[in-house]
Design a protein that fits this description.
The chain is an alpha+beta fold. Helix content is 42%, strand content 18%.
Amino acid sequence: MNHIRKRMIGCTMLIALILSGSVRVLARPVEYAPYMGYEYNNYEESRAAPVGYVPNGIINSKSLGLEEPMNDPSDFVYDGTDNFYILDSGNGRILALNSSLTLRKILGPFAFQDGSIVDFKGAQGLAVDKAGRYYIADTENNRVLIISPKGMVERIIERPDEALVNTDAPFKATKVQVDAQGQILVIAESINLGIMVFSPEGEFVTFFGSNTIKVTAEIIKNFVIKKFLTKEQRKAIREVTPVNYLNMTLDSKGFIYTVSADKNGIAESNMLRRMNYKGSNVLIGEKDLLFGDLEWNRNYFSNARDVNFCDVSVESEGFIYLLDKGKGKVLQYTKDGQMMTAMGAYGNQSGTFGAPKAVEAVNGTVYVLDGGKNCIHHFIPTRYAIDLRKAFLLTGIEDASASRSAWEAVLRQNSNSRYPYYGIGMAYDSEGRYQEAMEQFRIGNYNSEYSKAFREYRKEFINRNLVAIAAVGVLIIGLLVWLARILKKRFSIVEGSAFSLIETKYAFPVYTAVHPIEGFDQFKTRKLQSYRLSILLVFLWLALETALYFFTGVPFNKNRITDYSAGVMLLKTVIIFCLFIVSNWSVCTLLSGKGSFKEIVSVTAYALLPLLASILLKLILSNLLIQEEAAFLGVIMTLGYLWTFIILFCGMYSIHQYSFSQTLGALLLTIFGMAVLAFLIMLFLTLMQQVVNFVSSIFSEISLRYS
């Protein structure tokens, strides 16, 4: 009985523990977001990632206690001293909020010096300086208003006619900023000469950092066509002008960040710029960085990198936030342009937008002004975003252990991310553990960083094993000398014969590589052609190209295993070889060439030998060199192609018994013939595909009719 009672008590306690554990699990706060988290790999493909930011409510007219609700707010500003300002454009007023986003005061209506009321409904831009002045880009009235802290208009900036003598474009100011020196920066949507800079007194100073025109095929074509058109016809052609800036902000160091959009809405590297006082773009790696959603269908080559940035915010730590109103997203980047996370979407749920207008990020918290829903969306970071932010901030510091621990915490939460491998690799690198750093960079596909770590590892390895390396070097030199003597004997004429051992049938490719003219003369007269050897050389080419794809050294290898296609590799080697043979045989038959089909096959295959040697040498050296030494690989491949061409030319010259010019012409016609053959093959395959589809549709129709 006691035994049964003890069991009952134990079961009761176990059930209580399970229930208490269940209650605790259910009581944990759930972080919900109506969108998915993702990052991009180095192939510009999105990979699932934990959500970085989640909605934390909204601030609207009701929560602010406004009697007159907000009407189409157009800008949202943080002044750096825990004050926020909303430009309530539809009502012609400014709402001042404190750090907790509660209403501090309503600013407006403002007045001119004569006491008349200022109407700035439809204004698109707002800025606040340290003295408490308000700068309003009064878009509809073509001016910029400077309002004193007491609410009086101190100054009005209007169209600087002296700077715009070549255009009658209106001064439709859309955005305004004030730098540390009090200079006023203005973006006017109708003026594409750059940011307009005004003195604190409102006098025009200069244009700043204008965008350049990207040279495209269409621009070159129009430039040429205009040379042959009349004045009236030239006017009919659409002029290509620089893309204007859409918005701007200043960071804590005084650099100006600008966003602009390509006219086709396609992501370009200069859509985000960080400009110094000279107007030069100093964004790190800006030539290679693309911002916005980069996803595209790699199987069908359909580019979907459409972006429509409308605002940018930069935190004091350098983190960048871009608002893409086209997709209703805020994308967070590091100061180096690496995308960390994305938040937001269009919709009716919490955390989704109606018409996003502005973004502000303060100490990791993100605020988005929504002109469609007349509210401010509040986003807070998740545990993952906090850890990721911490890890990026710790990267490069002296405490490598702390940095590595931070990145390991990120890796535990997101094994899809490549960033932890970068951070851990950098930590190992700073500790001098280069081999471990190389492994991390290899996993994360950071070729440049791998190359730098390998350079140090190679230097360390050479210093540690200098004597052994010298001994191996002496041994290799000795082997080369011995091999040279052996080859000299092989090249010498065998007693009782007119030819050396290397001039035999299966060693003849080596002889023709060294003595192409003399070799191919023998080649034709002695009938040293070999289909077997030719096929072996062609498939050796295929094998070496495949090995080069997979085993090129990490600093130079941008190939991906999943992208490997046996068909493409066959096309690059075997199929091109076959096309050349058929085309050359056809051309030279028409041009009375003396070479037989077997001779053409053998000459073409034997000519590949230097190319095969250069591919093999490149494969070996790519695992021993670093990126700064890539020129050596280029020289090796160039010599290989050049040597192969010389042998091929000499071979064709000899077997067809052409002159120099005839041989050159035959080779050019051969290349043209290859293109024609490729076109005919593609046409045939397309027609066969259509026939198959037609027959298949007939059978389907019959089966449906009589089933």
